[in-house]
């Protein structure tokens, strides 16, 4: 074993320890959620708390999934998140493309301004949003919820796509245009395939922003368009908290995004490293 | 790409209307939309069904989480445009929303008032105007383990030690005696495994009930809005409350309703003061299932006292359907007993509770009625900043008070300063 390797071993161990600690730190809350979903009501609230159930049960899943409105809320969440993601990408990609290709001062200001809107607390725009959606007849529809969610995801999408498109050399556009492609054709056929990892990352962030959003869904929905986060929250009432059923539904609700992330993992990794090395 | 397009088309299709059914009736029938907290929806479902059956008018119960309901109401009232015809309001919100709801004075006839508990009538009024019709109420009563209280060995040992028979406690002294007595090492392994009671440091209502029992002219605030949290009655109540820490499981500062309920259901405590609705909800797998008795809340110098957990139905001034809304509220009052046949099993009218009190499964109603009629039972102060006072001053103070060595008078003085600052 060389001196270099000997010196590396403690560092590597330390890194593995840190990595392991991080995994435990991030994974434990979800693991606890998962385990709680299999506990009886007494175990779920045991004092002191128990990590593993004394008795494993699926009753929480039965109770959560048989609750009125759960399936409908799931469909609403999927609808709102899908529409919101598409809207975000359709608006953010051309906006980011324009900003990164024309490189004007106003374009830079626009990207910064878009990011600044993220600093406004959603509750501040909640009340005017309710009035606006009511005037448009969009309250209690997933479309209304999706539009509201797009106000959250769009600024981040523009910012993310700008950083991804920035890494694509202008020569690619120029080559496409020499071959007779217009700006939009160059974007669609040449640039987007290059940054598809970035698009995947942006899409996931936009999807998650809508999937997990609570406040706008609370303010804008009643019966037809309630999303699952609201239904999960309904397990907490003035009279107590149904931990078992709540964690069961939260587990079920988190599965699609976990699967989506695993499915798009290749693109996400590609997107994360996109622009890391500029040519 | 094809799958993505299909998903998008499906999402767009669902987005047009939503998957949760119709909020407004599509068959031309009128609909009353009622905003209600998740736990209270079950209370209104039987009433809504009966209303639809009798009048043909549909009732759409919009269920929201407790905090979410408050946020939704706040935003809609402040926008001046509302999406509902009736709202079920927690008593502590009435003052804050009073300007946005219709007066209901004409509904409160003498006959109606006579069939409601005094605290409910008092709390329904803001500045002399009735702004909500009580729909259900609740109060903390005493839950005790019958297997312990009726055990001849325990009875003999208690009487020998304290000089009077073991029976559900009725006052502070008896409660303290029994809490100390039942704090036992039942298996002889040198560790306490049964406690007399719990102490809830993370919620304020139970301490406020003791403040009322002590005879304070008000809870935290007097009738003129002056902060009286430092008076002798508040101190006596806090001393009584915190002395029980010695006879309670560890970690009192973090014990809230859910934790306390579980401690009792796990058989770790002999007595708990808890909301009456929990009596029929003891889980089948609980160690104490079938071994629980219910008694009225204990009494202090001013008698039995509790803080009622009242909910009211109110009509927004900005509503489009006010006549229909009032018709629904009248119906809910007239058929208040229907709510008892629900998961929570609560009502607001005395006659509704009395109708069920002698039936099996409703043994706790007698205790609940006695508690709600207790001479010291009083509502929380009608102040729009009450929730802020609770969160900012009362709960932090209680959490400090249940720690060893706490100076209760100093904590009350500190809380008084904080509350005066909140009230400006």
From TrEMBL, chain A:
Phylogenetic placement of the source organism: Bacteria, Bacillati, Actinomycetota, Actinomycetes, Propionibacteriales
This protein's UniProt keywords: Cell membrane, Membrane, Sugar transport, Transmembrane, Transmembrane helix, Transport
ABC transmembrane type-1 domain boundaries: 74-264
Organism per entry: Nocardioides gansuensis
Gene3D superfamilies per the UniProt record, alphabetical: MetI-like
Pfam families (UniProt xref): BPD_transp_1 (PF00528)
Subcellular location: Cell membrane
Entry's Gene Ontology BP terms: transmembrane transport
Membrane-spanning intervals of the chain: 12-35, 74-97, 109-133, 145-165, 186-208, 247-268
Family: Belongs to the binding-protein-dependent transport system permease family. MalFG subfamily.
Membrane topology: Multi-pass membrane protein
Stored CDD domains: TM_PBP2
GO CC terms in record: plasma membrane
Protein name: ABC transporter permease
Top-level taxon: Bacteria
